[in-house]
Amino acid sequence: MATALLEGTDGTGAKMSKSRGNYIPLTAPPGEIFGKVMSVPDRLMEPYLKALSEWQAHDLAVLAERLADGSAHPRDVKKIVAGEVTAAVHGVDAAMAARDEFEAHFSRRNYAGLRDLPVVGDVSRAVVEIVKSLGFAASNGEVRRVAEQKGIRLVVEAADGGPQEQVLLTPDDARQPLADLLKTKLDGAGGDCYLKVGRRLARIDL
């Protein structure tokens, strides 16, 4: 059984591969698989559906028409693809739970109820090393690029459900120990702390 090579999740045009870090690991928890699919560029939804679901040519043609006339939104299509892929690996119930968690994460902006989040336990390490160990980036250069694009943040969420506080980390900050940044940038802030890298999230265990 064979299929065409899949383009990676980063949208650069390179094929999906572990070495490039633009892949979706089948051993990942449901929430991570769902989130990785949701990070894929809109233009890849049709080839992903063709390769990773049981949709037929007729279904894909109807979807293409609906996207063209605006009656279907690319984000909604992504949720379908993400659900299909997650359900194929973990089952329908896990896929539905992953979708609910994604909505809580990116729509309601409430992180406290999210499951399957990786945990940062050793805050003495530099942020760049933590990001790589989490699998959120493959190299120091990639971490630097994400930081330059304003994609690395510290997030504090109040225990009472109040507003979040987010602090942008610069490329220079990313080379500092996380413990120092928590002290200098979030000193006095109460609540649960998270490290956000692009669309990926890890809970900081303090």
SSE layout:
Layout lengths: L29 H9 L6 H8 L4 H13 L4 H17 L1 H15 L12 E2 L6 H7 L6 H9 L3 E6 L6 E5 L2 H4 L3 H8 L6 E6 L2 E5 L2
Parallel strand pairs: 1-5
Antiparallel strand pairs: 2-3, 2-4, 4-5
Overview of the molecule:
This protein has 9 helices and 5 strands; from the N terminus they run αααααβααββααββ. With 206 residues, it is an alpha+beta fold. It folds into 2 domains: 30-106, Tyrosyl-Transfer RNA Synthetase, CATH 1.10.240.10; 119-204, Structural Genomics Hypothetical 15.5 Kd Protein In mrcA-pckA Intergenic Region, Chain A (Roll). It has a 5-stranded mixed β-sheet. A hairpin with a 2-residue loop joins β4 (192-197) and β5 (200-204). α1 crosses α5 and α2 packs parallel to α4. The protein starts with 29 loop residues before the first helix and ends with a strand. 25% of the residues are buried. The mean pLDDT is 86.
Regions with pLDDT < 50 over 5+ consecutive residues?
none
Here the CATH topology of the largest domain equals Structural Genomics Hypothetical 15.5 Kd Protein In mrcA-pckA Intergenic Region, Chain A
**Mean of residue pLDDT values:** 86
**SS content category:** alpha+beta
Helix-strand sequence: HHHHHEHHEEHHEE
Provide a short characterization of the protein structure.
The chain has 9 helices and 5 strands; from the N terminus they run αααααβααββααββ. It is α+β, with helices and mostly antiparallel strands and about 210 residues long.
